[in-house]
Design brief:
Elements (H helix, E strand, L loop, with lengths): L6 H20 L2 H10 L4 H7 L4 H11 L2 E4 L9 H9 L11 E5 L4 H10 L7 E5 L22 E5 L2 E2 L2 H8 L9 E5 L2 E2 L10 H10 L11 E2 L2 E4 L7 H6 L5 E2 L5 E7 L2 H8 L8 E10 L23 E5 L4 H15 L8 E5 L13 H19 L5 E8 L5 H21 L2 E7 L12
Parallel strand pairs: 1-2, 2-3, 3-4, 4-6, 5-7, 6-9, 8-10, 9-11, 11-12, 12-13, 13-14, 14-15, 15-16
Helix pairs in contact: 2-4, 3-4, 5-6, 7-8, 11-12
């Protein structure tokens, strides 16, 4: 017997199914596919569409199962529901459809082992591993040796390794040989490091001695995008850029620094030989520093071959002295002449402008004055074709506050907005970060 509270849902589903059947009879398949693509983010609607007729089934399923994610309710729960989700991606009628998988293992080693013993990567293009604990595995993590794959994107977030040697073994696995995008954020090590174990040359030698996970004929990993966050060792760039490492950097186009404002780390990653680098991005308005920090990044890039090739620059802008100094230094380098290609600049303001709208303090007003001056100068650069000001807005912000924020933007940037020199984008503030979302 159908419960009373379920009747409206069933009625709505039946009506949607009836309408879909009628639409299918009169619409060409091209328009139907456009409709289904429009519903790509609505799994309930896609589930209904998959039942309409054979011509709708494949497209609906492809969108419905394109991306799967699994996470146990808590670390104390049994692994059975988790395993069912992993196996779902391997079922014979879905294995050709699943392209992206996100696995959150809650730092439970057994769930990490289940993932790598069960998940076939041969058709996946994107793998997101969150809170995986590899520290209790073998040094060379042999689980990853035999996994053939077509993976193009690997995201490692809050993963735990024994040390940098094990991290290098993991990244050098043949299953990652076709990677084009790599994200390493909030990586931690179980073993304490010292002066010797932090030495890049020692790490590379130890990596070569403790395993043979990469066959000699395996080509190096040629990345196009690198997303880097907090990592325990301050010299991680020495390891990744070493000529003996499993990586080649001649095609790297974009580097994104996530919550990193440490001068040593940033200069280290920008001091490599990066002939194809054209996009630099800093994410988050809450920069973090390494425990062995060499101080805050000022915007002065030591590698003078970098800036002339950069065509896209994106960074947070909270009207602080740090932000103003950073962009004044950028302006100083670009303004000194030469052939600079910077054409697109994106500044991400604080969520709801972080109270700047209501601040009347003289020092805040001064920062706003200096900040707007920097923005106007950026917009006036001959090479800059588009300058985007992004204002994240809280989902539940009251209407009056929205009007106040927009009034603030119009007051300070209205002239340039009307002239087309500056564009303002209001978008919902997103709490869950998704690396490489622009290209996925």
């Amino acid at each position: 017997m159908v419960r009373a509270r379920e009747k409206p849902a069933l009625a709505a589903a039946s009506l949607a199914l009836l309408i879909a059947l009628m639409v299918n009879a009169i619409l060409p398949i091209e328009i139907v596919e456009c409709i289904l693509d429009h519903l790509a983010n609505s799994k309930p609607d896609l589930s209904i569409c998959a039942l309409v007729c054979r011509s709708w089934t494949h497209r609906s399923r492809a969108l419905l199962f394109h991306s799967l994610s699994t996470c146990p309710p808590s670390p104390s729960h049994l692994s059975e529901p988790f395993l069912k989700s992993i196996l779902l991606a391997q079922s014979s009628h879905l294995v050709d459809l699943v392209r992206e998988v996100k696995v959150d293992c809650c730092h439970v080693s057994e769930l990490t082992r289940i993932t790598f013993n069960s998940l076939r990567l041969n058709r996946l293009t994107r793998l997101w591993l969150c809170r995986n604990d590899f520290a209790r595995f073998d040094w060379d993590i042999c689980l990853t040796r035999t996994l053939a794959s077509s993976l193009e994107t690997l995201i490692l977030d809050r993963a735990v390794f024994k040390d940098a040697v094990q991290l290098l073994h993991f990244l050098s696995s043949p299953c990652f040989s076709k990677l084009r995008s790599l994200s390493l954020t909030n990586i931690s090590y179980l073993l304490r490091t010292n002066t010797i174990t932090r030495d890049a040359d020692w790490i590379i030698q130890r990596w070569k001695q403790t395993g043979s996970s990469r066959p000699p004929a395996t080509p190096k990993i040629t990345l196009e995008e690198l997303d880097i966050g907090l990592i325990p060792d301050h010299n991680i760039y020495h390891i990744l850029y070493d000529s003996r490492s499993p990586f080649r950097w001649n095609r790297l186009k974009r580097i994104t620094f996530y919550r990193i404002w440490d001068n040593g780390l940033i200069q280290g990653f920008l001091n490599g030989t990066l002939p194809a680098l054209e996009c630099l991005e800093w994410e988050s308005t809450e920069p973090a520093y390494h425990f062995a920090s060499s101080g805050a990044f000022s915007g002065s890039i030591q590698n003078r071959t970098i800036l002339p090739k950069i065509i896209e620059l994106s960074a947070p802008f909270a009207f602080t002295s740090r932000d103003v100094i950073f962009f004044y230094n950028i302006l100083h380098v670009i303004g000194n002449g030469g052939d600079h290609g910077l054409s697109t600049v994106t500044l991400v303001f604080p969520v709801d402008l972080d109270g700047l709208v209501y601040h009347k303090l003289s020092d805040t007003s001064l920062f706003i004055l200096h900040g707007t001056d920097v923005i106007f100068k950026l917009a006036s650069l001959p090479s800059v074709k588009s300058l985007h000001l992004v204002v994240p807005m809280s989902l539940y912000i009251e209407e009056q506050r929205k009007l106040d924020v927009k009034s603030f933007m119009k007051t300070h940037f209205g002239f340039y907005m009307n002239a087309g020199s500056i564009s303002v984008v209001y978008r919902p503030a997103v709490s869950d970060r998704e690396p490489f979302s622009r290209s996925s």
